[in-house]
Every structure is written in C-alpha cells, then in structure tokens.
Amino acid sequence: MKTYKIYQIDAFTKERFSGNPAGVVVNADGLTDAQMQQIAKELNNSETAFLFSPDDNDSDGLIRYFTPTSEVPICGHATIAAMYAKAIEYNLDACILRYKTKVGTLPFEIVKKNEDYQIIMTQGKFELSPIFDPATTQQILSALGLHYNDIDERCPVQIASTGHSKVMIGIKSREKLNNLTPDYNSLIGLSKQINCNGYFVFTFDSDDDDVLTYGRMFAPAIGINEDPVTGNANGPLGGYLIQNKIVDFKDNLFEFNGKQGEKINRLGMISVSVGIENGLPSLIKIKGNATVVFKTEIKI
C-alpha cells in the first residue's frame, strides 16, 4: 500500500469554484495505467495530471494526463494545476522545470510572487491544418447550432494544434456564443471523421479592453461535453490568429488575454504569448493563476 497525495486545483483563476478544475497526483510513482484511469474517473474532472519522477538526466520528471475515459497527450489547464500543486507541496522557489509529455519534453516556468505562484507553460509545436471543405464546414456548423452568417468572415474553420488539436470556429457574437446548444452526438461522429476531438468557438465580441476573445470548447468524444477554460485551445488560437493574419503584432511578439467559461459559471482567464519568426508563429506560451480547492490522500 502506498499513500498518494491528491490536489484539486482550479486553474486560470484565483477564485475557488471558477476557472477549470483539475486533479493532480503529485507522487504518482507506482501507479498503473488502470489505476490512473480509475482515479481520473473518480475525481471526474475534465483532466487529472499525474507527476512521476524522472527516468533520465534530461528532465525533471514525467507528466501524464487522463480524462474520466481516456489518456490525452497534453493538457493546458492540468499542466498549470500540476505545476502549481508541485510548487505548493514542495514550497518551491521560482524555477523552470522540464517535464516529459506525450508531445515531447517541455519547459514549465514557476513564477513566485508574494508567497504565491503563477505558471507559464511552453506549448508544443504549432501546426495549422488546411481549411475544411465547404461540406465538412457545414457539418461542423450544423452540429454546433451555427449558420454561415454567424461566422466571422476573417476566420476560416480549420484545425490548430500545439499537441492536442482543436477546430477553430470564429463567430461574430458573444450572445450567440453563450446561447450555443451543440448536438454532442453529431460532434462525436464528426470527431472520428476529421480526427479531432475538440471544437473551440470564439469571438472578438468583448466589452473589456484587456480581453481579446471569449470562447467555449466542446469535446464530447473524449467525455468532455464542455471544458471550462482550455489552455490547448487558447494557445493554438494565438498561432491561428497570426498565421491567418487576423491580428497585428510588433517586435515579433503577439500577446492577448482570452476568457472562457462564462456560460457555465466557471469563468477564467488565460494569457497567451506567441513568438513570431518570418511572420509565422514559432513559440507559444500560456500563463495562468491557480488556487487549491482541497488536498487529500488515497492509499492504493
């Protein structure tokens, strides 16, 4: 029997019961895949992160992510949560930790300020797929309850990824965004067809000068009908906006804040930074706050 330490963390917020909740097991050495899946299902967050000791001299550890139904390669909010939990558990000073993920070894920066922490996550390589053909685009819009006249004409419907792909759908109205009622079964079927599980609907319809976008993210194919605040949607969104020349930038850097979770009363904010080379996104980082909701232990 081993005692495992489990944190429940709300990411991208400093207010409990808002932002995006994630489970974190800070000492996961010894857990099997089946046990991790059971823990993730029991905690029933969109993702639970498991931190393991390093298996070589080139990293500070391994991190794996499970939804209640399956393992996923990378997760933004669960990374923020995991690094925050590790910093709290071990009273870390400011540092950069390199963790192995399913999309490669990534640096995660722990920023210490006023006896609290912010986390900066460097995401995986940005990739942008071709624009969907009109028939597939129509299927996606229909499944989301959208029409062509809802779409922001600057925003092509296509898949963007920094390791865990999302379909980007830009629309004109925040009211429309908050009134969406997707057909989840249709989205599940489409996910198999297009080989992408997440649908990120966003809008520039913001009444806050510090917030560029509001969004909602649906991923029913992996057991997440709606994710409150999604790092692996807002990060790739930054690359998508640059590569499609939708936004301006200066000094080879584009930064913005995105909010998500308004409709489901889990509002949180992500800060996104896109480094740019030759007019294309080269390095994407997300920054977020977090807070501990509770800590517990389980013996297995």
In helices, the fraction of residues equals 10-25%
| Span of the ends, CA to CA | 5 Å
Tell me the Rg in angstroms: 18 Å
How many β strands by DSSP?
A: 18
The geometry reads as: globular
User: How many distinct domains?
Assistant: 2
Biggest beta-sheet profile:
18 strands, mixed
Class by SSE composition: alpha+beta
- Could you name the CATH homologous superfamily of the largest domain? Diaminopimelate Epimerase, Chain A, domain 1
CATH class of the largest domain: Alpha Beta
CATH topology (fold) name of the largest domain: Diaminopimelate Epimerase, Chain A, domain 1
Q: What is the name of the CATH architecture of the largest domain? A: Roll
Q: Low-confidence spans: pLDDT under 50, at least 5 residues?
A: none
How would you sum up this structure, described in words?
The chain has 300 residues and is of the alpha+beta class. It has two domains: 3-122 and 289-299, Roll (Diaminopimelate Epimerase, Chain A, domain 1), CATH 3.10.310; 127-286, Roll (Diaminopimelate Epimerase, Chain A, domain 1). Helix content is 22%, strand content 40%. The protein has six helices and 18 strands. It has an 18-stranded mixed beta sheet that branches. α3 (134-144) packs antiparallel against α5. The chain is globular.
List the helices and strands and how they pair.
Elements: E1 3-11, E2 20-25, H1 33-43, E3 47-52, E4 61-66, E5 71-72, H2 76-90, E6 95-101, E7 104-113, E8 116-122, E9 127-128, H3 134-144, E10 158-161, E11 166-171, H4 174-178, H5 184-194, E12 198-203, E13 213-219, E14 224-227, H6 231-243, E15 253-260, E16 268-277, E17 280-288, E18 290-299
Parallel strand pairs: 2-3, 4-6, 11-12, 13-15
Antiparallel strand pairs: 1-2, 1-18, 3-4, 4-5, 6-7, 7-8, 8-17, 9-10, 10-11, 12-13, 13-14, 15-16, 16-17
Organism: Pedobacter ginsenosidimutans
Family: Belongs to the PhzF family.
Pfam families: PhzC-PhzF
